[in-house]
Amino acid sequence: MVIALKVIPMIANRPTSMELQYIPKQSHLLTVFQQVIAAKNTEERKELSDELWNRIVDEKANPLIVEESAYFFVGGDENTKEILVAGDWTHWRPGGKFRRIEHTNLFYSIQNFAKTSRLQYKIIVDGEWVLDTANHRIAEEGFGVNSEFWMSDYIDESYMNFPFGNVPIGNVHSHILHSKEVNYDVTLYTYTPPREYQSLNSIPLLVVLDGEESLTIGKFNQIVDNLIFAKKIPPIMMVFVKPTNRHLEYIDNDNYCDFLKNEVVNFAQDIAIKNSLSLSTQLSDRAIIGASLGGLISTNLVLKNPNVFGVCIAQSPAYWWNKGEIYKSPYLQNASDLSFVLHTGTVCDAKELTYFMKKRLIQHRVGNVVYREFAQGHTWGNWKTNFATALIDWFSIENTLH
Description:
Helix content is 30%, strand content 24%. The chain has 402 residues and is of the alpha/beta class. It folds into two domains: 27-150, Immunoglobulin-like (Sandwich); 171-401, Rossmann fold, CATH 3.40.50. An eight-stranded mixed beta sheet has the order 10-11-13-12-14-15-16-17, with helices on both faces. Strands 3, 6, 7, 8 and 9 form a five-stranded antiparallel beta sheet that branches. Helix 1 packs antiparallel against helix 2 (42-59). The longest helix has 21 residues, at 254-274.
């Protein structure tokens, strides 16, 4: 049994960052902030506050990070009445009221976070929600874009970008499949590995829920290209399934589960044959991944069909549905034949629910379970930056089985 209870280093020789991380020299800005607060003369304080804000904007240095503290600044004017922040840590409700520095137009708020946090937010100025123009980091979500910040000890292991080499690119194609199980057309996208690897036998299959956003926001295909090139995972095939009516499909919908286990898997096999690929017949090489409600249906599907999928990857799973009905599922008895990768954020996410599922699986003698926590929220920012870790977890389990 593989059990990981905390965030643990993945591989010793892994690059410490998958991008050229921007680290502003913030100590001099904090010094100016201290000078602003200490200034006795009104004119001096205003002059120093203007200098501080202009430098923060020029350097795109907001928020200033010092150990566990994040110093947020916003420049207003004499008419600005109230500035708030909403983010992952506030459940996206307005909070964290900013203080105006007396006799200036500069507002600030100091908030504490875990040193490994990567979080999103928006500034609310007199009721208007806006991006932080003094922050260079932007995170795309299903409902738009947010500002994002990284605390001092956060290390980007997303494999979103690869720092060297010409990475071979896999092939992504869109398809329309008419499902007999649900009786409507479903949009699918298939990813097949770069041609350099298409002569390999026994390629694993990953079915990806929320398929379109996993491509457009999550960049899952790009991450897999980089992981394969870095030899962190073997070449794989993926089928991205776009939901038609997400809420109805992902909540205990037997017809939709039949569609996934029968029609999607068969469709993947047909596409593999057309591309001269040989899919593995090992159940440990067949996984499904989903986030939030997608994590719920993935877990249900794998538990009910251990002869179709051998691995469930659930990110921030919505196990709360129907008062935690899944914890009482009679299909938990199938856990001994299965492997689970359970990931959750610790910031207003699904930590307690996911941890309890880990315990329930262990009680039912689960084949393998990897559990990880990340100081992030219930966002695509969390799921895409930790997708690579989830895949490495999957194949780490495989290595223990073979």
